[in-house]
Structures are given as C-alpha cells and as structure tokens.
C-alpha cells in the first residue's frame, strides 16, 4: 500500500509553492516596473539631447560670416561634437530636417560602421513627422526596421521671428537608437534581481523548513504515540511542546491516554474478577452435579448439596444482573420513571429485606431520619437499587457486632441521604477510583466478594438523575452520600415509595 506525503511534506510543499509564487510575482512586477521606468528615463534623456540639438540648429542661420568664408561654423562644429557624444553615451544618431525636407545627418565614422543603426526614415515618414511637428508636437515612438526595433525621439526646431516676436517651426530634430541598445542596459539589472530573488527564496525556504519541522514534530510524535496505543501500548505519551495549541492538544491526548490506560487496566482486572467469579460457582455446580450423578455423593446428602447448587446459581444470577444493570445504565436511551416518593420509607423497606444479613453478623442499624416522611422526585426503582448497593457494601465490609447508620436531611430543595459503617474503610489511594467501573478497592483483603460494579452502577444512576454521589472522608469505616431533588407528597400515598410513578 502506497503511503502519501507526511504532514511535514505536505505543509512544506504548500509553503514552498506559495513562497515561490510570491517571489516570482514580486520579481516580474518589479522587473517590469524597473524596465518601464528605465526606458522612460532613457527616452526623456534622448528628448533632452534632441532639444539641445534643436537649439543649436536654430543658431546655424546666424553664422553667416563663417558660411561666407567657406568655413565650418562654430555651432556646426559643436553640433558634430555633441552628436559624437550622443552616439558614445546613447549609441544613437541625429537627423536634422528643415521644413523644405532637406536633411542633415550627424554621425561619425564609427556610427557609419554600425550597420544596426543604418536605418534612415523615408521621405514619406519624414513628411508625416514634419506635419505633426509643425503643430508643436514632440514625438516618442518605437518603430520596426529590417534589423530590429528602433526607439525614435522627435522634437520641433524653432526660431524666433524678430518681426512678429513669435517662435517659428523651421524643422525637426530626430534621434534614433536601436531598441536592443536600451534593453541591454537593464538586462544586467534583471540578472542581479534574479540572483536576489533566488537568494530570498532559498533563505525563506530554509526558515520555513525549520518552522514546519518544529510545528509538525509534536504532531508526528503524537501520531506515533497514537499508533503505539492502537497496538496496545497504553503507556505511550506525546511530548507537550510547541505552540500553545499544540501543548493543549498534547495535554488532552496524554490525559486521554492515561484514562484509556486506567480503563484498560480496569477492564483486565474486571475480566480476571468476572472469570474468577464465574469459574467458582460453575466449578461448584459442575462438581456437585457430577458427584451426585456418579454416586460419589451419597443419596442422603443430595438435598444438602442441591442447596449449595441453588446458592451458586443465585450468585451467578446476581453477577449477571449487575452486568446487565450497568449495561442498561450506560445506554443513553434509558429513560427514568420519575415520581414523588418517601425516601425514608424506601430505605426502611430495603432494611427489612436485609434483616437476615444484619442478624447474621449481629450488626446494629441506626435509622437517623430527620422526619418520618422525606419526599423526593426521582425514579424509585433506581434509587432503591442505589440504597441496596450502598447497604450491601456496608454489611459486607462491617465486622461482626459493628454499626451501620442511615441518615436523611433536607436543605431547601435538596435531600441528602447517607449510609455509614464502621468497617475496614477505604484507603486514600482507592478513594480516587472507587466509582470507576470494575474497580475493586478490597482486592487485597476480600477476594471473591464482588466484581466492583455496585458503586459504578450507583454513580451512573445518580448521573442520570442529574445528582451526585460521593465518598465522605472520615476516620473509621466508609460513608457515602447521595443527593436527590426534593419532591411533593402525593395525596393518600405518604408512605408509598412508588406513588405517583409515571
């Protein structure tokens, strides 16, 4: 069976993908903005050079003396020098066009040798440019040529008319450069940006790697602990480290593991106890029945041993009933038949049913009831089961000639009912688990006296009622207290615990 990526792998993949996309988008957006700004600045710089050449061109007509002597004027010499500087700095050449269409192209020998710059505009293009420039427009455009795209900057060449005191457009100044010349200037910057972007990605990826590992390590350890628990190792625990949420999760997991460990231990003890409790009566029944069948037990003793068999079947029946009661109380579908009844009267009936056991151990029983009638609102059958279990435990663990006290008190809307004995008591370490299912506090003292279900059944019954049962600390013996909601006496049924039952 193929295994997918681990949580660490999935998180790391997602984080790295997000970081890669973010860095890539940031790189391309920054690169495009820098490229556009650089091209715009380059064109503005060329436009400034074109304006300077236009100003120089307007001064050519004033150099009449130099032209009369057949010499090159100072202005024209300066224009050639500037054209050479523009070529060296911008790798561009300059064309000056008069209104008549006459052109002067300024470049040096190195310009002529550069075939990539040997694209001169046609007469039709010059005418269209002149038409736009005559209206005072400055033109910046990108044109195509046989040898690649060109960037072109065109500005008007003007001269002031002395008579009208106005600027007259005499022609245009054009500066052209190959696009690849402009692009080459920022390509190096693109590589630098790419190196920075890759470095940012690697550093961020390294940080994310360690953060993701730190985040998933406790979860991985928790998953390993859960796997160990699934294989039966309930001692496995998760390390409580990492963020606050992870610590809380690990703490809850360890608490659950501890509870499962306790429950598993209780289950094992329960299986051992039930096995012992079942094996003992079954062995007795089988042995006595076999002895009577094969004649080992004389005929005159059959009645005696049949009584033992009956007692053992009663013991089995009680064990099974306890298991069924616990199972029934654990069911969420179990409903309670509420009624108002006298809990004192109910307790007296339970006492009467246990007279034989009390007399057998010569136990003194004190019914310390606050009033003759103390009505509560509950399920009488279930509360009777609670009182029976508590009284049976008191009888079981109270030595001969001991004393058992039953007490009831009402405070406002709550009735408190207690069962106290002066028996062997409950050890402090056992008091924490006394209401756990299958737990036997007396396992080291009275083996075989029960299965540890009675108090668990009592607690579940009280929880179903929304009430409580607790062990009261004290010296000598054990004392249990249950709470019940106070009820109202039913007319004509003041001493019937089942009166008014739904």
Care to give the gist of this entry?
The chain is α+β, with helices and mostly antiparallel strands and 502 residues long.
Structure notes:
This protein has 502 residues and is an alpha+beta fold. The protein folds into 3 domains: 7-187, 2-Layer Sandwich (Beta-Lactamase); 244-330, Helix Hairpins (Orthogonal Bundle); 339-485, Histidine kinase-like ATPase, C-terminal domain (Heat Shock Protein 90). It contains 13 helices and 12 strands. The chain has helices at residues 7-58, 64-68, 74-90, 109-113, 123-133, 179-230, 244-294, 302-330, 343-353, 355-360, 380-397, 428-431, 454-464; strands at residues 92-98, 103-106, 139-143, 150-161, 166-178, 339-342, 364-369, 375-378, 403-411, 414-421, 469-472, 479-485. The strands form 3 sheets. The protein has a 5-stranded antiparallel sheet with strand order 2-1-5-4-3, with helices on both faces. It has a 5-stranded mixed sheet with strand order 7-9-10-12-11.
Write the layout of secondary structure elements.
Layout: H1 7-58, H2 64-68, H3 74-90, E1 92-98, E2 103-106, H4 109-113, H5 123-133, E3 139-143, E4 150-161, E5 166-178, H6 179-230, H7 244-294, H8 302-330, E6 339-342, H9 343-353, H10 355-360, E7 364-369, E8 375-378, H11 380-397, E9 403-411, E10 414-421, H12 428-431, H13 454-464, E11 469-472, E12 479-485
Parallel strand pairs: 7-9
Antiparallel strand pairs: 1-2, 1-5, 3-4, 4-5, 6-8, 9-10, 10-12, 11-12
Helix pairs in contact: 1-3, 1-6, 6-7, 7-8, 8-13, 9-11, 11-13
């Amino acid at each position: 069976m193929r295994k997918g990526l681990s949580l660490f792998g999935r998180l790391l993949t997602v984080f790295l993908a997000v970081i890669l996309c973010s860095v890539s988008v940031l790189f391309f957006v920054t690169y495009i903005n820098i490229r556009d700004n650089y091209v715009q600045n380059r064109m503005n710089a060329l436009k400034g050079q074109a304006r300077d050449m236009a100003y120089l061109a307007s001064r050519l007509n004033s150099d009449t003396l130099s032209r009369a002597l057949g010499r090159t004027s100072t202005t024209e010499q300066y224009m050639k020098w500037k054209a050479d500087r523009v070529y060296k700095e911008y790798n561009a050449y300059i064309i000056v066009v008069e209104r008549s269409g006459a052109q002067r192209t300024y470049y040096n020998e190195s310009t002529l040798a550069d075939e990539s710059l040997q694209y001169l505009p046609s007469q039709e293009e010059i005418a269209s440019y002149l038409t736009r420039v005559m209206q005072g427009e400055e033109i910046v455009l990108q044109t195509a040529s046989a040898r690649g795209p060109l960037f072109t900057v065109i500005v008007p060449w003007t001269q002031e008319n002395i008579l009208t005191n106005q600027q007259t457009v005499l022609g245009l100044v054009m500066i052209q450069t190959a696009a690849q010349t402009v692009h080459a200037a920022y390509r190096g910057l693109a590589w630098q940006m790419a190196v920075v972007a890759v470095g940012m990605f690697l550093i961020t990826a390294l940080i994310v790697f360690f953060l993701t590992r730190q985040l998933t390590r406790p979860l991985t350890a928790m998953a390993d602990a859960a796997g160990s628990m699934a294989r039966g190792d309930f001692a496995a625990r998760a390390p409580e480290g990492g963020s606050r949420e992870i610590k809380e999760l690990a703490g809850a997991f360890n608490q659950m593991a501890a509870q499962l460990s306790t429950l598993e231990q209780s289950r094992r003890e329960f299986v051992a106890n039930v096995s012992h409790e079942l094996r003992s009566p079954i062995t007795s029944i089988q042995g006595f029945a076999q002895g009577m069948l094969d004649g080992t037990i004389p005929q005159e003793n059959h009645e005696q041993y049949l009584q033992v068999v009956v007692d053992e079947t009663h013991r089995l029946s009680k064990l099974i009933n306890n298991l069924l009661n616990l199972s029934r109380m654990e069911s969420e579908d179990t409903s309670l038949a509420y009624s108002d009844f006298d809990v004192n009267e109910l307790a007296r009936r339970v006492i009467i049913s246990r007279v034989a056991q009390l007399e057998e151990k010569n136990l003194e029983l004190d019914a310390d009831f606050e009033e003759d009638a103390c009505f509560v609102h509950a399920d009488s059958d279930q509360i009777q089961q609670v009182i029976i279990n508590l009284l049976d435990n008191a009888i079981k663990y109270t030595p001969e000639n001991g004393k058992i006290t039953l007490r009831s008190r009402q405070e406002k809307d709550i009735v408190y009912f207690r069962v106290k004995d002066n028996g062997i008591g409950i050890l402090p370490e056992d008091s924490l688990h006394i209401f756990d299912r299958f737990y036997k506090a007396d396992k080291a003292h009275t083996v075989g006296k029960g299965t540890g279900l009675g108090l668990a059944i009592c607690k579940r019954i009280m929880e179903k009622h929304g009430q409580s049962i607790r062990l009261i600390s004290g010296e000598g013996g054990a004392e249990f207290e249950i709470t019940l909601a106070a009820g109202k006496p039913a007319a004509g049924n003041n001493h019937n615990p089942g009166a008014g039952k739904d």
